[in-house]
Each structure stands twice: as C-alpha cells, then as structure tokens.
Amino acid sequence: MEVLKVEGLLKQFGGIKAVNKVSFSVEAGEHLAIIGPNGAGKTTLFNLINGQLSVTEGRIHFYGKDITNLSTHQRVHLGQARAFQIISLWQKLTVIDNAMLTLHGTKPHRFKMLRPTKDFKEVFNQAMETLRTLNLWEKRDEPVKNLAYGEKRRLEIGLSLAMQPKLLLLDEPSAGLSKGEGSDVIALIKNLKSDITALMVDHDMDMIFEVAERIIVLHYGQIISDGTPEMIQHNQKVREIYMGIEH
C-alpha cells in the first residue's frame, strides 16, 4: 500500500529552488532514507511533507488523500509524527510530564487540561509503558534538562512512536550521539512495528546503511539516485557528488 506520494514538488525561495520537481512514493512499512550533501534540500523536503513549509508547486498525498494544503497538526492527526534534529522536548518539565503531554495531545479529550493527572489513567499507563520500553521509567521524575543527550534523543523518538504514527519522520536521529547512544537509536528504528513507515534524513552513513531498505540521494534539490543501499554504495555519481571520491 502506498503511504506517501510526492509529485513534482517544488519549493522556491526567491531565485533558489531548494527542492526542484521532486517525485517519489513510499510503501507501507518501508524504511526510506534521504541523503545528500549540506544544502541538498533534505530538511526543506521534510518540512514540506510535514507541513512546516508551504509548497510552491506540486502535490503531496498521504494514503491517497491530498494533504498539500493541510496544516502540520492536521497531518499529525492523520498519522504523521516527527522527531526533530534539534530536540524539542519541554526541558524544565519532568520526563513523565513530557510523556503525558505528548500522549494527551493525541486523545479526543486533549483540550480538557484543567483536571488532575490521576483523572487521565489511560494516558498515565501509556506513558509508563513507553518510558519502561525506553529504559527511562526510573528517571520519570527528573527534569528533562538533567538527562544525558542520548537519553533525550531516545525519549523524543520514543514519544514520537508512542503517538502510534503511520509515518514517522526522523530528522538527523543520530546527531550529537556517541557510538553507544547511536546504537540505541538504531535499535529503536530497526525494531519499529511493521505497520510504521519510516522516512529519515541523516549524515551518519553507517546508520543509514544499517537501517534503510531504500535510499534517495538529493543534490541541489533534485533526486540523482534512488535504490537499495547496495546500489547507492556502488553508484559512481553518488560517490563523486556525495562522498567526494574522484576518478
């Protein structure tokens, strides 16, 4: 089943085409990575898919529905979730409060905030289960600002998954992580449920080649290659442009 379809996507800033007539589709359960040198248009493309930026031209379809002009929060309620490159957790709130606020926002009663926490037992139980899965339950009462960077990254990705998305957008999930912390993130991605489709951007090629089933390479806002990790590794044009290998 086709989860995401991007058709002729163009994003122009003045005379600069940050994303230039990009078209591709993503199947259900697929792990697709988008790579390319700095300035290739990767994050801009993510922002278009997620609704952070408006499209200059082209269309975006999500499970066959045209979402080109929908807001970010409307796309979230259709089943998109995103973990950002810059951690976007509430730093002064506790780990459990971050979890409960995130999960509360996915519920029909999300606009009813002025009630004691104990009244939201379903949300609390779900938050507890999520934090235990992430090995962060023991730190539930710690302010997020006190967590190690790798723990913050794990928490953000874990909370994105707890929203039970159909499409998970991962923006530089390995950024700033040590090798050990990166292994934890790789394990999270590799163990995604089969009904979650993952679309990721990252500069860590070891991680990309380990978790991606398919890779798209962008250069100056255009797709120059689309294929399996093995195909991308042996593509001479990609090696020259992305990896800086000369003849």
What is the CATH architecture term? 3-Layer(aba) Sandwich
Beta content comes to: 25-35%
The CATH homology group name: P-loop containing nucleotide triphosphate hydrolases
Instruction: State the helicity in percent bands.
Output: 25-40%
Overall structural class, as computed from helix and strand content, comes to alpha/beta
Oligomer: single chain
Predict the CATH topology: Rossmann fold
User: Could you say which overall geometry the principal axes of the C-alpha atoms support?
Assistant: globular
Number of helices in the DSSP assignment? 9
Termini separation? 41 Å
Order of helices and strands: EEEHEEHEHHHEHEHEEHH
Strand order of the largest sheet: 6-7-8-3-9-10
- Compute the number of strand runs: 10
Rg result: 19 Å
Low-confidence stretches: none
Structure notes:
The chain is an alpha/beta fold and 247 residues long. It has a single domain, classed as 3-Layer(aba) Sandwich (Rossmann fold), CATH 3.40.50. 34% of the residues lie in helices and 26% in strands. The protein contains nine helices and ten strands. It has helices at residues 42-50, 72-78, 95-104, 121-133, 149-162, 179-190, 205-211, 229-233, 236-241; strands at 2-13, 16-27, 31-35, 57-62, 65-66, 80-83, 167-171, 197-201, 214-219, 222-227. The strands form two sheets. It has a six-stranded mixed β-sheet, sandwiched between helices. Strand 7 (167-171), helix 6 and strand 8 (197-201) form a beta-alpha-beta unit. The longest helix has 14 residues, at 149-162. It is globular and about 50 Å long. It starts with a strand and ends in a 6-residue tail after the last helix. The mean pLDDT is 86.
